[in-house]
Amino acid sequence: MSRRNYCSNRIFVVGIGFFSLCFLMTSLGGQFSAKRLGDSPFTIRTEVLGGVESRGVLRKISDMLEVILKRMDSLSKLDNTSTTDARRLDELSSAINRFQPAGLVERIQAIAQNVSNMAIRVEQILQNSMVQGRAVRDGTSSQCEVPRDPRFPECPGKVDWMRARWTSDPCYAFYGVDGSDCSFLIYLSEVEWFCPPLAWRNHSSPPIQHAQQAKAPKRQAAFRTDLSVLLDQVGTGKESLSFMKRRIRRLAQQWATAANHLDAKLEQRWRDQKKILVHVGFLTEESGDVFSPKVLKGGPLGEMVQWADILTALHVLGHNLKISMSVKELQGFLGVPPGRGSCPLTGPLPFDLIYTDYHGLQQMKQHMGLSLKKHKCHIRVIDTFGTEPAYNHEEYATLHGYRTNWGYWNLNVRQYMTMFPHTPDNSFMGFVSEELNETEKRSIQQNKVNSMAVVYGKEASMWKVQGKEGFLQILHRYMEVHGTVYYETQRPPEVPAFVKNHGLLPQNELQQLLRKAKLFIGFGFPYEGPAPLEAIANGCIFLQPKFHPPHSSLNHEFFRGKPTSREVSSQHPYAEQYIGRPHVMTVDYNNSLEFDSAIREIMRTKVEPYLPYEYTCEGMLERVHSYIQHQDFCAPESPFIPANLSRQGSSSGSRITGPLFVPLPNSTALGWASNVTAPPAWPPLSSLRLLVSQEGQSCVEACHSASFICEPAHFRFINNKDALHGLEVQCEVVDSEINHILPAFSVVRRECGLQREPLLFSCAGHSPKYRRLCPCRDFRHGQVALCRDCL
């Protein structure tokens, strides 16, 4: 039998089955209700048994049957139905013949779903057949072979995925995907970026649905000191927004002074003005916004403090800023029509940078859809506690037990921006504390009450600390204890009677209380908030508990599920490690003798108000300016090949023969050889200090112990045999693998491993069996985020 006759017979069988199903539906309608005059066999009323639900089901059946009827007519006219399509028609015919009139009411849902599936399959057969026929006529079928291009290694896999699931989202059809390999390749090369451009496509004109926009000329950013426009942009309607605006107004003069200082420091240097969208996801109604209702009830303010300062820094630096506090505003700024679902954006992103948080990232995935993959290099994620590489790499995290509810976005981990510099794999964003002038500092020192303590904890729940009665009684023996715990009518029972509770205070009154107090004492929670820095800036000594063992996601509920394995040794590790004595004391609260001794030492010690430079307005402006002008995660990083380097002053093309890394004077670290041309990098390679960790030690710890900081951007320059040779590491085997502790080596086995997946370069990784190659760097005094040559 010829293929055409065979397919015609199959279509006939499908048609017979279809009309049998029509008869079945007509009979079914009689069982449900009397048919009205003028109703077609496919518009059945269901008033007796089914109600609204059954009426919807039958309407769905009616719609699907009418679609199938139209497709049957089209299929019967095709001359080029393939063997594969014939097999699909066989399946369709069998599916229709399986319908039986038994158990009618009970099987309506199943019938509706099967009919829906049949409609989709008929649609696919029709589309594929028509497209293949068109391709044969146009001579383009041979031009749609799946390319094997090493620059686009994911292309074949993505085509296979599209073949199986292109009907899973209507967006694919929206962009012209019709089930053919040609349409898959056009989509994957022009809407997405997984496949190379097709040579036979007309690239001189913009592709359909993907119009190219002319690149706008660069504009210079100018410092701003007037914050009125920013205040209008922040908006109204929530107490969280009111809090942020009060903070912006209160610090306005300090931001203006800082802008003038940084402008002078940069000596009128050109700065690109960026188009920046700030989407504060955790304050949107769609995320639940649990923060706004608690602003006036002692709830956490740290995130709002940081976001207010980020908005101000971006505005003062002179960038073109848009602020979104709802999903509707996000859609409007991104140009996504409401109801378009997950259809990806096409053409250029209307912003150079997008600052958001994990809630906002999820919302953008939902409303930017598939294009988030293409545009994610523009995103910066404000992430309080940090995200480590092992948790960020989706496949690796899933296979090795690092998968959590957060993380797994496959970003460059420097796109995550933290509140404190605790995770060098990420970028340190920070916030600001109010800076005092010299007159205010002298006044504070003159008016300090040596026997006055203020407790860190505005919510009554923070006072539910096991054993607090013991150390509070010791404190009460020496000092008058003050609290600022929120309450409505009755004093919280968690607060002891000897504590003078002021209730929740406005910021200016809290500041006056801190300026009088000698001690600011923490109970262990909240972790890593802004309040201890504010207290230290107002002349207090901060006393906090030491944690034995350190708190982490392995042993503490608060950190469980967060995308980090970081161990927290105290309530505020930054204060402990970067400020320290005499401003900060960290002791074991369970040791009454140690606690008693600490209180007596605090009363004897005189301190001046102190604020680290990186938490001043100028320090934050300096840091954010550097990130915006120098961090570029969209430009592809070419593989670093040492053999391609040349010595400075040598003729073009000549290759180096000496070492890349040389010993530094008075140091155990190696530096970049000064006579070798350094490839473009930020931070510059002049800041690189190559070290080796001990077994079980992370690069965070190894660099810190040498008074450096780990720099993840430098990993690609030390992930080679030249670095191993410079460190005189003996390797019998050098393998390239995917593991977040690499590059590293085993002394016992004499095995060396290099990193094959750049997203897994990790300062935080460690293993008891391996010593790690660590890319440390120097840093500016008071500004750990920037190297000495970074500004």
TrEMBL record:
It is found in: Golgi apparatus membrane. It catalyses: N(4)-{beta-D-GlcNAc-(1->2)-[beta-D-GlcNAc-(1->4)]-alpha-D-Man-(1->3)-[beta-D-GlcNAc-(1->2)-alpha-D-Man-(1->6)]-beta-D-Man-(1->4)-beta-D-GlcNAc-(1->4)-beta-D-GlcNAc}-L-asparaginyl-[protein] + UDP-N-acetyl-alpha-D-glucosamine = N(4)-{beta-D-GlcNAc-(1->2)-[beta-D-GlcNAc-(1->4)]-alpha-D-Man-(1->3)-[beta-D-GlcNAc-(1->2)-[beta-D-GlcNAc-(1->6)]-alpha-D-Man-(1->6)]-beta-D-Man-(1->4)-beta-D-GlcNAc-(1->4)-beta-D-GlcNAc}-L-asparaginyl-[protein] + UDP + H(+). The keyword Nucleus does not apply. Residues 171-776 form the Glycosyltransferase family 18 catalytic domain. Its main location: Golgi. Keywords: Glycoprotein, Glycosyltransferase, Golgi apparatus, Membrane, Signal-anchor, Transferase, Transmembrane, Transmembrane helix. Its EC number is 2.4.1.155. GO terms for molecular function: alpha-1,6-mannosylglycoprotein 6-beta-N-acetylglucosaminyltransferase activity. GO terms for biological process: protein N-linked glycosylation. The keyword Nucleus does not apply. Pathway: Protein modification; protein glycosylation. It is a single-pass type II membrane protein. This is alpha-1,6-mannosyl-glycoprotein 6-beta-N-acetylglucosaminyltransferase. It comes from Larimichthys crocea.
